[in-house]
Amino acid sequence: MIAVDANGADQGPAAVAEGARRSGIPALLFGPAAELGDGVEIVDAPERIESGAEPVRAVREHPEASIVRAAKAVAEGRADALVSAGSTGPTMAAATLSIKRIKGVHRPALAVLVPLPKGPVLLLDCGANVEVRPEHLVQFAYLGAAFMDAVVGVDSPSVGLLSVGEEQGKGTPDVLEAAERLAQGPLNYLGNVEGFDLPGAGAQVIVSDGFTGNVALKVLEGTSRVVRAAIRERIRSGAISSLGGLLIKRNVERLRDEIDPEGVGGAILLGLRKPVVVGHGSFGPKGIASAIRLARRAADERMVERTREALDSAGALRSATAASVETR
Hints:
Order of helices and strands: EHEHEHHEHEEHEHEEHHHHEEHHH
Radius of gyration: 20 Å
Strand order of the largest sheet: 3-2-1-4-11-10-5-6-9-7-8
Strand content: 5-15%
Number of strands: 11
Structural class: alpha/beta
Helix content: 40-55%
């Protein structure tokens, strides 16, 4: 069973419910029952947390809100994972307070599987942690690698640190220290990667602080929208262009499907004791269905357990990193 917060999506609770039906996966929807229709299991929870509210305070002050009740259902074992297309802040706050972090994880990281023609790239953190320390970046790398292995099926994924140059020695002091630790560990660590390595799939896991990662993700998304619109405009600009468009239509549609964010299912909050998927607010039924399938796959593939094992074996959990700092 997947707990789904039906409030918060731009297209409304009915679109979330339709996505749940399309997913073909048992889901427990928390939202306004009158708007959710039939064919899904529902908990009437019309209260929602508005965008812009201070997340932790809002979660504590609104225990009956749909996202709070959905997260609590996961924490209590009534569901295996959480999905929400509402605001990221309240989702993260509700999940962290109820589901809690894996023991030894400093901070959960928001990871986005970016669909690219050369294959998906996991970018993290994408906004959960604006300021980070070296040990946070190290943990993000292991969290991302474990996700790619467990859920995407990429054996020994390549890992890179997002920086201002690929040369060793470039980057902030925190990036340099994290790079040194990662180079000594068991990951398939490539070193620094630059901004243009992200769309070029220069590494399968790209690690950053939340400020830089969020900016990079939105630049990618904005560029993708502009390019797609420009291609459509040029194809429709005249009879000859339209004919050429018909000839390449199948290939263009295939590429569009490959890089469609709704096919991926949104971001996943790594480092918690149960899988939590955060869909984009603009997602329609297709994106919601993908988010629910992603959450189900993460639970079935024991993503959390495998992540904990990877962090533990690498000595990257908080107790180990704290001891390392104390002995330096």
